[in-house]
Every structure is written in structure tokens, then in C-alpha cells.
Amino acid sequence: MTTPTLLDPATPATAPATGAESRAHTARTLPVFVLSALLATGQMYVPIPLFTAMKSEWNAGSVVMTWIISAFAFGYAGGFVLFGPLSDRYGHRKVLVTGMLAAAVVTLLTGLAFSAPVEVGLRVAQGLVVGSIPPAIMAYVATRITPAHRSVVTMSVATSFLAATVIAQIVSQAVVASFPWRTVFLASAAIFAILAVALRRVMLEDAPSGRELPLRHSYAAIPAVLRLRPLVPMLVAGSMSMAVMVGIYTGLELTGVVQSSGELLTLRAGALPVMLLLPLLAVPLARLSKHTQIALGVLVAATAMVAATFEGSHLAVLTVLLAVMVGGLGIIGPAVLQSAGELGGESRAAAMSVAMFSFYVGATAGPLVAAAAAPHGFAALAWTLAGLLVAALAMTVVGLALQRRATN
Predict the structure, then answer these.
(1) Residue 11 placed within a domain
(2) Distance between CA atoms of 150 and 140, rounded to whole angstroms?
């Protein structure tokens, strides 16, 4: 007996062709997808280095600043659930290009906000429209990329979502050092528009869909995903892991464990080599089960986080430990996404939307956890985040037990 997959009520009787003629050109598609993933997810993190400038202009407190991050994550998570099924219904290319253009407009408005409360509201809207982008990308990869290239492309794009955590902060920090903080958002809006044009050129035309069925059928797969009992604990583990990722970088700003911009840049940039290496691990990791991959990633990240509680005052050691932690977390995300896609059947975008929704529910909580723990020092923050990773490991074990029960 095998683990069941979803049945998509919006799937047409005749599935779209998946022959060689319907496969995307990997070399042309991957770079644009990687840049789009970096830009989309990077919007969550670009305000972190801007906190000081934004607080000064608006005379706002630290709690309001953390809500600027959480507001985007809240909208982002909602965007996955709202637009993922539409991607299955109306076409991945159409939803993705439209989402990029809408993101350009809302990001422009975000950069023009005149107060912190307005900024928080615009960040929710920005997250919502940007949330249309990742599910469409991942579903396109699962259906139009050559199967032999799929694992590497999936890992590359998923790593881009993760790398945005660091790259967005580095770029934002560099820009605000020479230009007003609003420049970051205005430039992002322009790049969204440019990439929309590039995506329209490199992506294949959308295949026929089940558009003739009522719209509610497109969303029926979402509760069906949550009935896949082996998947649910994996989603919870992914959510906790994402909370740790966002929480640690927000906490670095709030705890003041490092003071100078150069030290912050070192901590952020230290994880980049690990992120660049992650796609190379796609092939050897594919030999392991998805639950084993998640458990491995959680163990690596948790070990690094525990060690950081003792070495938080040493910049070089902390830089290495954060890089190791990011490497562990970088294994978890692709494993959860691929599991959701495999179990989702023809409703891949809907299933991946639920998986990404779970990630960014965790991302919403991450800054709030950091804000609560930061006043007690970096060690308290690190222990709190390590506890979340231990809980994620427990959920992975539960998921494995449920999967074995389902397959026996």
C-alpha cells in the first residue's frame, strides 16, 4: 500500500501533455526563477536593516518595527492559500506574471508610506500579492521542468527562498548606507516589473485547465491537503523551522549582540557560501527519504543553535554557527515542499501553497518570538529558538510514524 495522493476536483478528464515538447528549457528558466524567488521572499527581510532609519523618521518603537516584518509574513502566507489554487486553475504562467506586476505596484506604494501604521497595512497587502509568486513557480517546476532536472531546480529555487533571508538584508544594508531607506522599495518595484517581462518570455504557454468547473473546486484541495495525516506534522516542523530562521536574524538587531554595521554584515554574509552549496546536495539528499532529510536538517540546525547559546559573544564563532544553522534549515524547506508536491497529485500548486502557508505562519511568529526573548539577552533567544527546533524534530518523528502506519 502506498501513501495516497490528492484527487483534484478541478482536474480535467484529459491531463495536459507532459511530453518532451511541453518541457521548459531549464537553462533559460532557472536563472529567472531564482531571481524572482530572491526578490519575492526578500521583501520580508529588506526592512530589518532599515529599522533605525524608519524608527527615526516615524518616531516608532521596536514592537512596531517587528510588526512590519510579521505583517508581510501574514499577507504572504495568505497569498499562498489564495493564489495557489488559482495557479492550478488559470495557469502558472498567467498567475505568476500577473502577480509580479501587481507586486511592482504595491511595493511602490509601500516605499511611499508616510507613517508606520500605513506601512504595516501596506506590508500586509504587499505580502498578499507577492504570495502569488512562489506557488506558481514551484508548481511550474513540478510539471514543466524535465524530470531529470527537477530535483536540482527545486533545490535551487527553494534555496533562493532561503538565501533571500541573508541576501535581501545585505543589499538593503548596502543601499541604506548611501541612499534614503525608501530607495530599497522603489528599486524592488522596478525589478518586479522587469522580471515580469522576463518570465513571460521564458515560460511556456499554460496548458489547458479545468476552468469550466466552479471556482470553489479549485480550493477543495486545500482542506484535502490537511487530511493527509503524514504530511501535517511535516508542515508543523517546517513552520517551526521558518520561525527560527526569521527569529534569529530579527533577534540579532534587537539584542544588540553585535554593534557595528560591519559585524552585522559579516553575520549575514557568512551564511551565503552554505546557501550556494545547498543545490549541490540535491542529488545525494534525494537518496534519503523526505522524513530523514527533515530530521537531518533539524538536528544540524538545533546543534548549531544550542552551541550559539555559549558562543554568542564571539563574532567569528557565531558567524560559523549561524551558517551551519542556515544549512540545516535549508535542507528542511525543499524536503517539505517536495513531499507536499508529491502527495498533492494534480493539485500540486494547492498542496505547495499549504506547505508555504505553514512556513510563513512560522515566519509571522518569528519576529514576535524574537521581540519577547530579546530583552533577556541573546542566550535566552538562542535557547528559545533551539527549543522550537527540538519540537520540530519531535513532529518529524510523529510524521514518520504516521507514514509507516499508512503504508502498512
Answers:
(1) no
(2) 10
Q: What is the radius of gyration, based on Cα positions, of the chain?
A: 20
Report DSSP state, residue 115.
Answer: S
Higher pLDDT among residues 81 and 198, named by residue = 198
Residue 52 lies in a domain: yes
What is the tens place of the pLDDT at every residue in 322-339?
889 888 988 888 888 777
* Alpha-carbon distance values, 128 to 64, 233, 242, 357 (Å): 19, 25, 18, 11
Residue 131 sits at φ, ψ, to 5 deg, of: -65, -10
Residue in the block written with cell 525589478:
191
* C-alpha–C-alpha distance, residues 67 and 120, integer Å: 7
Q: Kindly state whether residue 214 falls inside one of the protein's structural domains.
A: no
Q: Which residues in 60-85 are b (16+ Cβ under 10 Å) and which e?
A: beeebbbbbbbbbbbbbbbbbbbbbb
Band of the pLDDT at 348, cuts 50, 70, 90? low
Most confident among 108-117, 159-168, 313-322 (mean pLDDT) = 108-117
**Angle 301-305-307 (CA atoms, 0-180°, nearest 5)?**
120
Closest CA to 368 of 237, 267, 250: 250
Residue 256 lies in a domain: yes
**How many residues would you count in the chain?**
408
- pLDDT, one tens digit per residue, over 251-270 is 887 777 776 777 777 877 88
Q: Print the domain residue range for 375.
A: 23-204+221-407
> DSSP states of 339-405 as a string?
HHHHHHTT-HHHHHHHHHHHHHHHHHHHHHHHHHHGGG-HHHHHHHHHHHHHHHHHHHHHHHHHHHH
Predicted confidence (pLDDT) per residue in 28-58, tens digit: 989 999 999 999 999 988 998 898 899 889 9
Domains of the chain: total: 1
73: domain CATH number is 1.20.1250.20
CA nearest to 283, candidates 148, 141, 146: 148
Residue with cell 532529510: 293
